[in-house]
């Protein structure tokens, strides 16, 4: 649940004293007035809701939804990239077999139930090796050549999944498929190489959109045209300028989508995106911190704010644990205990964040874990850390390096705080290198680097299988943290074969406990953020697993404008 | 006999020229207010850089996140940054980085450019042709693009950024020096010196260098300011100075912009510092030119 | 004259070749890989898949072959496609160049309109208050980083005026009013810098010319002389200014990236810098060569103009 120390109330009171004294300095007068006003309004207002329920009014059709976006799609071929630049709209043009619940179908941001998209129902054999999907009938591809509105059939699924498995960024997910059967037009039977009870979740990922054989065969790739079965047609794609989606008149879900057009404006600069929202050119925006929200509300007092909650953090300190000194669990534990996560969370994220863990907590517990529940090695105990490090043979610390890419400004703050913590508490000298994205990602993904890195695991995937087996199994190519633990290998493999929900939860808890105990991945605090909407936007709420402006974009089919 | 006797006279004349130049500069500074202002700014910058440890009230790297983004106050006259470091201390230490930045980039760029230009101008012929084409080739690539590419190839750091900027400066400098050398070679003194058998290095030192130093110094003073700005832009693009170094450019381009509305002091003070430093360097360049202008024309 | 021109033209070719070598070499030596970046945080960079894409893009050929191939592509005006997006480079250049040209032209126009009169005023009233004010304003234009000024402008336009230009570039032919509205602020930010440099140059060249003997004599002759002086002095003073403006073009082309990023304009600067950051070799190489060729041509034209004006230069 909500951390009860929220926003400005989380600040120690002596900040007021600073502000009072600063009033004497004319230089800071403007800043002071602004800050004070901000403080006042935030204190008088209630904390922002973490869920904005669907509007009870009947939805209006029409209007243009616009958003100033940081991301420009590099390519529109979903086989070639998982970047959010493409997937901020790919799931609106294409569909998947199954999906997660939309905000107007549920009442809580943590609902993980699967719903049918192009599949009406699905089930597996008892050993979870064969999955049968019954497809919705009468679904048509978009009425654009060369498909011209023909019906969507089982053979399309087979073709698409086989193409994904053959090459590209999604191949890993689909390579566990051994074969397909299409006994009739509306039934697809998928045979897996090894049992996997969580297979539908993998298929529900928003990146696994279904594309057509005709386009791939005619064009040779999917870079030039994007045609799907989704609620919107790709009407315009001008690189570095805008993406325009127009309503699909033949969409199978009659009556939806509500909005006529969704326009995504390529706006690389954060200040400009903010200005676009303020002047009404952008209908919703995501902001990281309470103070940013306050500044926007000063000019746009009627903006609607949802306090977003991340169910996991994608980022943490990754160490080269396949070699000294980090292959010694005592060193990892010492480093983890020397970092003051609570302070990072309270200051850098202004109290509105999560302490950090890698698996969405809903899979093994009901409430968001608190720091105390994350185990002994996650607590800030510098004295013990120093003792433990000395035991491991480094009483005077050592030198190491840490490279990162600044995904967002707070990350730089965090990296520097970690550097200071390690130096002060353990005399570990961390040399920081801030890299550009390509250099960072190349080096990180190669997994040959030494020392430390500010590492990540995908920010969008929510399937339990992906988050456990695919990220932590020693043989997985997605194992960026270089976890190599036989207990984890055994547990994650077993998880894929455990159909019973309660048993899944217990097993997941065991996996997470083991991860924390051995400090296999040192997760770091992360923001929760806020989604801010213009007052006329309805049904825009984001679930805890995804943001509506990013991988959760398929929910836009349910949004409408009350204008 | 008369020719031999002119040698000491020539040397004395050169020495007199040098002293006269410095005196002219001092007079100009005294007479023109903008000259005085710029000299004062530069002096302030240099002093701050030298005495940074004494002037800064706190350790520029000591983070106290619990007082992050605090507005300016008596304890922290410039406020605190995103992890609670004292901005005044960081700005003061930043002067060291900026001076280092400017001097290294411009120093290397100027000296290397001068050497190349001297080589080309003096030797002429094939060496000149080839080397000048190389210089043109480098200069044809837009400066920021070249600097960005070079820094990406080397590891991103302040020093490497400076080396990249030096590379951008070299071709222009070499061209100017070459031009000055070419025109100086037509000077009577040089012909005379060659006629009486003066060795090359002496000719270069005594006759050519003095004509060249003036325009070079003027350009260098302006490039000192540019170097600081380019470093800031490289930081904006993500490949410049490394945290936690208190470089003004990094402060301005990262936290300054990210928190522009919540904490405008994060951008205000480093921005002012950059502006004053660049202002000082540029105005000083103007002053140098004003002081030495008649000399330039006469030679 | 023609011999001089021919010689200079011939010399331009090795310059361009050298530039191309430098750019090619630098791009190849940079760490990181466009394909890895493209795959994004998927973790699915199977070696097999990467090999195939690399082979398709001919990135597994030895460097000298890649260089030769690229040179041939340039010369035959078929520069190939972007590694990152697959879009033909001619298409992306065709879209980006008009944006940057318009931005640069507007910035220059704004800059000149402000700079030249102030520069002349400053020179003719040397050491008076207007001179000082002019110079300080000019130098502050040179001292403020573009990205800071741009961010300030866009943030406070939104806060104070509740207005920012419409995001989402439209070309002049589609909608002239909206287009000009979009370019106004970024051109002003760029132009401010340009005007600073130009003003100082104008001031110094006018000062120099005013001190020439023939000018002094004309002054002494009286009012009529003054007009003659203005005409001659300005003409001679403006030639270096033209050079400077030409030189500024190189700086401007590089400097547009910041303004294009902040004001969301899809120009050459943004295209080139983003391509460098993503190691999109073909795009970077082609773009830089295009700019280099433009600069070399401009330099050539300026040199030829000088040679035409001052015969001594031709015989060096």
Quaternary state, please? heterotrimer
**Biggest protein-protein interface?**
B-C, 51 and 55 residues
Strand content of chain A: 15-25%
According to DSSP, the number of beta strands of chain B is 0
Mean pLDDT, all residues of chain B: 80
Helix/strand order of chain B? HHHHHHHHHHH
- Count every helix of chain B, treating DSSP H or I runs of 4 or more residues as helices: 11
The percentage of residues in β strands of chain B lies in: under 5%
Distance from N terminus to C terminus of chain B (CA atoms, Å) equals 27 Å
Count of helix runs of chain A: 18
Describe the structure.
- The complex is a heterotrimer of chains A (563), B (299) and C (316).
- Chain A is of the alpha+beta class.
- Chain A contains 18 helices and 22 strands.
- A five-stranded mixed beta sheet of chain A has the order 16-15-17-13-18. Chain A has a four-stranded mixed beta sheet with strand order 1-10-9-8.
- Chain A is globular and about 70 Å long.
- Chain B is mostly helical and 299 residues long.
- In chain B, α4 runs parallel beside α7 (158-185).
- Chain B has eleven helices and no strands.
- Chain C is mainly alpha-helical.
- Chain C has 13 helices and no strands.
- The longest helix of chain C is centred in the last third of the chain and has 40 residues, at 223-262.
- The interface between B and C is large, with 51 and 55 residues.
